[in-house]
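User: Can you recover a sequence for this backbone? Please restate the input before giving your answer.

Assistant: Of course. Working from this structure:
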């Protein structure tokens, strides 16, 4: 599993096309989320479901980084290419700047 700070994600053009999966629950996502992420709660992973794969590099985000780390582990165990855990999560995005997030 790779690790990436939110600041690096937001500022480095190399990550512009990264697919970001938010693994928080619907109510957390509805309250505030990073613009452009897709929601796929960790609870669904734990029920044996996985997001649909595509060919993009995958980053996983949650509130602060713990659930996203677990989701990366589950994806990699299921045969996905190496995932990137977005350290600091949505909290880091909020601190980075209001233009990074959407509120419900």
């Amino acid at each position: 599993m790779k690790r990436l700070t939110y600041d690096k994600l937001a500022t480095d053009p190399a990550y512009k096309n990264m697919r970001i999966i938010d693994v928080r629950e619907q109510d957390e996502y509805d309250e505030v989320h990073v613009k452009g992420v897709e929601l796929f709660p960790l609870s669904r992973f734990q029920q044996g479901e996985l997001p649909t794969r595509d060919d993009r590099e995958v980053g996983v985000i949650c509130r602060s980084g713990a659930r996203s780390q677990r989701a990366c582990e589950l994806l990699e165990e299921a045969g996905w290419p190496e995932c990137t855990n977005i350290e600091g999560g949505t909290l880091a995005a909020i601190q980075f700047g209001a233009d990074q997030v959407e509120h419900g």
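That completes the design. The chain is about 35% helix and 25% strand.
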